Amino acid sequence: MSNSSERCASYGHRQFKSLLASIRSDIRRFQTKSPENLAAPDDLVHRASAFLTPEILAQTIYRIAHFFYVRGWIRIAALMARLNSYTHKINIPPQSCIGPGLHIPHPCGITFCGSAGEDLTLYSLATCGATSDYADGPLEQSPVLGDRIISGAHQAIMGPVRIGDDVILGVGCSKISEDVPSAVLVYPRQARVFIPKPVAIEDFRRNLGDNQ
Amino acid sequence: MAYQLERFSWRKTRELIRDDYARLYSLLGRGHSEPPFLVWTHPSFVSVFLYRISNHFYRSGHRYIARLWWHLNMLLTGADISEPADISGGLVVMVPAGTALMGKAGKNLTVMACAGLGGEMGRLDDVGGGPGVPVVGDDVILEPHCGVLGPVVVGNRVRVCAGMGLSVDTPDDTYVESASVRIIKRKDVR
């Protein structure tokens, strides 16, 4: 696992050809994400249909913004990231470096600031970024993710931590602020179920009814 | 009956907006070599600005106009910051989409992605911010996916950990920590 600038150079994010290849790999990942998509033929119509989903459009705008950022056109990149945050409600600052094969099934509310390798999956409302001392934080203060990371819904990775390859971050992992080794599952502690006494339920209902 | 708030002049509202802008500017500039660019277009500032306008109209008694500004905020940024919320200057909502705020809060409140302040089912006491909503002190940080819920009083300089649902009173200078995670070795990957 390398740092973000080396990773960006290794993916060739400065090259326009690499930008197209990244978008193509995102579409390919979308086409293989479910048995229904796999069953569909890989023709121009289905590729265009995949391209017009909010997922791929949001990713494409991010890819173009990152391309401009790496080329030094930082202001255009920032404007494109703003466009993404208003249209798709997804917050990926242009300095974030993400490898090919990105998959974001539900873009609204996603926050990603950091660097990640190939085949990153961010489920709904996953959050990854610097601590609260920074807004749209610098990459030195942001997480570095390896390849093939699956980040479950509602999980938060915060601060300059390193996550290894082939890691699954389970649903609702409250906060990951320490390094995680490769090939592991990270899950939150099991929820506890309390069975309330009937009296407590009656009190609750009475309280609710009185105040309504 | 609607909750009554002190009436503000436009001057006071402008001061609050200026505080919000200055705080966001300092946070955006930290750690970057270049000064922040077009801060007034940042979703955080837009959501807080629209909330301030809606709150101003609410305080003036124009509830329907306030509601329209709240709607505009919802459509444009995705932030649900209720117009009766009484929040002091320096508010930063880092990622407005999915954020819901209602209650009373002090200066320099930092709200990270999908965090919120608000009511809880069944408890509708008034602790100073309105029926069933919390009162939060100065310099409070709400980390991603956490919530301060119900009529509770949270002190100054409190940081609520990501993923927490805080529904008890909290003293000053506290870090509300959540349960740690379990790490299990994957057998399907070598």
Descriptive account of the structure:
- The complex is a heterodimer of chains A (212) and B (190).
- Chain A has 212 residues and is an alpha/beta fold.
- Chain A has seven helices and eleven strands.
- Chain A is globular.
- The termini of chain A are far apart.
- Chain B is α/β, with parallel strands linked by helices.
- Chain B has one domain: UDP N-Acetylglucosamine Acyltransferase, domain 1, CATH 2.160.10.
- In chain B, 28% of the residues lie in helices and 18% in strands.
- Chain B contains three helices and 15 strands.
- In chain B, the strands form four sheets. A five-stranded parallel beta sheet of chain B has the order 3-6-9-12-14.
- The longest helix of chain B is centred in the N-terminal third of the chain and has 20 residues, at 10-29.
- The termini of chain B are far apart.
- Classes of the chains: A alpha/beta (212), B alpha/beta (190).
- Chains A and B meet through helix 6, strand 11 and helix 7 of A and helix 1 and strand 15 of B.
The total count of helices of chain A amounts to: 7
Biggest sheet statistics of chain B: 5 strands, parallel
* CATH A-level architecture of chain B: 3 Solenoid
Helix content of chain A: 25-40%
Largest sheet of chain A: 4 strands, parallel
Spatial arrangement of strands, main beta sheet of chain A? 4-7-10-11
Number of domains of chain B: 1
Could you tell me the radius of gyration of chain B in angstroms?
A: 18 Å
Shape estimate of chain B: globular
Secondary-structure-based class of chain A equals alpha/beta
Shape of chain A: globular
Average pLDDT of chain B works out at: 89
Structural class of the secondary structure composition of chain B? alpha/beta
Q: How far apart, in Å, are the first and last alpha carbons of chain A?
A: 56 Å
Number of strands of chain A: 11
Portion in strands of chain A? 5-15%
CATH hierarchy, class of chain B: Mainly Beta
Mean pLDDT across every amino acid position of chain A: 86
Order of helices and strands of chain B: HHHEEEEEEEEEEEEEEE
Point out poorly predicted stretches of chain A. Answer: none
Please give the share of residues in helix of chain B. Answer: 25-40%
